Automatic annotation (TrEMBL):
UniProt cross-references to Pfam families, sorted A to Z: HD, tRNA_anti-codon
SMART domains documented for this protein: HDc
Protein name: 3'-5' exonuclease
One GO term (biological process): rRNA 3'-end processing
GO terms for MF: exonuclease activity; nucleic acid binding
Residues annotated as domain HD: 162-278
InterPro entries: HD/PDEase_dom (IPR003607), HD_domain (IPR006674), NA-bd_OB-fold (IPR012340), NA-bd_OB_tRNA (IPR004365), YhaM_exoribonuc/phosphodiest (IPR050798)
Keyword Hydrolase: yes
UniProtKB keywords: Exonuclease, Hydrolase, Nuclease
Keyword Nuclease in record: yes
Length: 311
């Protein structure tokens, strides 16, 4: 069966999908409806359920598997699923959540093994010990967590996928610009988003936790670095530099960074993060697009549509 994101407008749907998000709304004439985000291994799609009531809201919640019949249609340049029939999956259907959760294309064990290789290249003992300490503490979550609820690397093991991809990019950039401090780049890449294991709820029907909403992954991680340094009895410039790299990795205050980058490694980390996030979004959007056509509008890329060349 074709993945839900691979279908074109006009095609019929009759398949099992996982409810990733469910929100209720009211039409302009006061009629209640529900907006659902439904997913399978290929990704997710928005769907509307009209004329709903409280019973529907109780039944169709995040993490519930449903069998949906309907049709794909184009809504403002983006595919949407028009639901005609929907029911909750029964045990005898034999479908589990893991059958429907997207995940990194490389097995998580391989990705983690690749990440650990970079520890051997970090020469500074303080940076090495702090980074290893934090990775060890959150290893179980790092293996499975997504990097976001939507836009980029928003799938199981997406966080690990993102970090390993950034490490490869960081290595290539350090080879080109030898004045960069590899220890700070590698540790910065490994640590910059680990706060997401507290900011987000997990790989299934991902939402923001209370801590995530109130503090955010950047503040969470700065605290973690401070705690690790204290536990390991490390006091030195390295601690401040690692905190600064995490604090500034979004690049600008309006993008959520408490500080702008003020060391060259922080500036470079911001670019590496941005390149990898944007490439992940583009690769996935272009993967759903036929040559000679445009992708759907990509909100995180200034709402642009990208053309997929025929050549």
């Amino acid at each position: 069966m074709e993945g839900i994101t691979k279908l074109q407008a006009g095609e019929q749907v009759d398949q099992f999908l996982l409810i990733k998000q469910a929100t209720k709304g009211v039409t302009t004439v006061g009629k209640p409806f529900m907006s659902l985000v439904l997913q399978d291994k290929s990704g997710d799609i928005e769907a509307k359920l009209w004329d709903t009531n409280e019973e529907h809201e109780q039944m169709y919640k995040a993490e519930v598997i449903v069998r949906v019949g309907g049709e794909i249609h184009d809504y403002r340049g983006k595919n949407q699923l028009r639901i005609k029939q929907i029911r909750i999956a029964k045990p005898e259907d034999g479908i589990s959540i893991n059958d429907l959760v997207p995940s990194a294309s490389t097995p998580k064990e391989e990705l983690y093994e690749e990440l650990t290789q970079y520890f051997f290249e970090i020469k500074n003992p303080h940076i090495s010990r702090i980074t290893r300490h934090i990775i060890k503490k959150y290893q179980a979550d790092i293996l499975v967590f997504p990097a976001a609820t939507k836009n980029h690397h928003d799938y199981a093991s997406g966080l690990l996928d993102h970090v390993v991809s950034m490490l490869r990019l960081g290595k290539a950039i350090c080879d080109l610009y030898p004045t960069l401090n590899r220890d700070l780049i590698y540790a910065g890449v490994i640590l910059h988003d680990i706060g997401k294991v507290k900011e987000l709820s997990g790989p299934i029907a991902t939402t923001y936790t209370v801590e995530g909403n109130l503090l955010g992954h950047i503040s969470i991680m700065v605290d973690e670095i401070g705690q690790a340094a204290e536990e390991l009895n490390i006091d030195g410039e390295e601690v401040v530099l690692l905190k600064h790299i995490v604090l500034s990795h979004h690049g600008k205050e309006e993008w959520g960074s408490p500080k702008k980058p003020m060391i060259q490694e922080a500036e470079i980390l911001h670019y590496i993060d941005n390149i990898d996030a944007k490439m992940n979004m583009l690769t996935r959007a272009l993967g759903k697009t036929k040559p000679g056509e445009f992708t759907e509008r990509l909100f995180a890329l200034d709402n642009r549509s990208f053309y997929k060349p025929i050549i």
